[in-house]
Amino acid sequence: MRNCVVPKCDYKNKHNPKRAMFNVPIKDPDLLKQWQAVLPVRRPLKEFDRVCDQHFREEDILRYWEHTINGTVERMERHKPALKPNSVPVFGQTEEEDEEEQRRVETVETPRKRKERNYRSPEKVKKMKLTEDQQAVENLTIAEPTQAFDSSTVHLSIENLEESVPVQVEQLSHPDFDTLYDEVYEVELPSTLWGIHRDVQRTFIAFTEFSKQTMNVRKYLFIDRYLQYRMAVGQRVMKRGTLSSGLIESVTELLSKLDEIKIRKVIIKGSSSILGQ
């Protein structure tokens, strides 16, 4: 993952880890406006944002040093490619690419569709279990005894069988959680200081911001498999809730709000703590 600011770019180019990355021209307001107008980023571009070489014309990228030695031009590959002055990114898919992506979306069963098809709510699982128990009682046959027995024992046994058996239903993950888990790298991070963490057992997703000053995690957004989330700054939980529709957009919006919270340092009796303003 190279953290290109263009949405979905890192996901689409995950097999191309050597892409060149270029910082946004934060010190050139006029050029920055041109970048902002071209790139499909809904928020203002920030100091730590980067754009990969997939969004520039090849002729605008300087990949080699050129030197003239005894009339001969020698080329040496740059360790880090650079952009020509006043270069502006380009963005936009061709009509063929749009049609191909649309066909793929319509024909391929996404993890979300597959999860919804196989998803069984706790109520549905309970009904299925009760139906199976009732069927087992109906199919039950009592063998005719060969010895004398107490009839009250038989009636008691049948009554116990006909009683509803308590069913323990394991609470399942929300079907949309797997979709978010698989497509989490499409979330638009506020800056390159933010990172994404996924539990290998698919029980939670976390987004954390790293502080250069304290060398620790400063803010985080935690989402469990039931789509319940909490936002925190330091040790202080700022907000709790449950995600609804539009998961990628909702998470992007929450991260943007969390990133905008300012940090101030408070000294209390010789100890320090970090609180959000």
UniProtKB/TrEMBL annotation:
State the Gene Ontology terms under molecular function.
sequence-specific DNA binding; zinc ion binding
The record's section on PROSITE patterns has: ZF_THAP
Which Pfam family, just one, is annotated for this protein? Answer: THAP
Name the InterPro entries for this protein. Answer: THAP1/10, THAP_Znf, THAP_Znf_sf
Sorted alphabetically, the keyword list is: DNA-binding, Metal-binding, Zinc, Zinc-finger
Q: Gene3D superfamilies attached here? A: THAP domain
Feature: compositional bias, Basic and acidic residues: 101-111, 118-128
Give the span(s) annotated as Disordered: 83-128
Q: Does the keyword S-adenosyl-L-methionine apply?
A: no
THAP-type domain sequence ranges: 1-92
Which PANTHER family does the entry mention? THAP DOMAIN-CONTAINING, THAP DOMAIN-CONTAINING PROTEIN 10
Q: What protein does this entry describe? A: THAP-type domain-containing protein
Per the UniProt entry, what species is this protein from, by scientific name?
Aedes aegypti
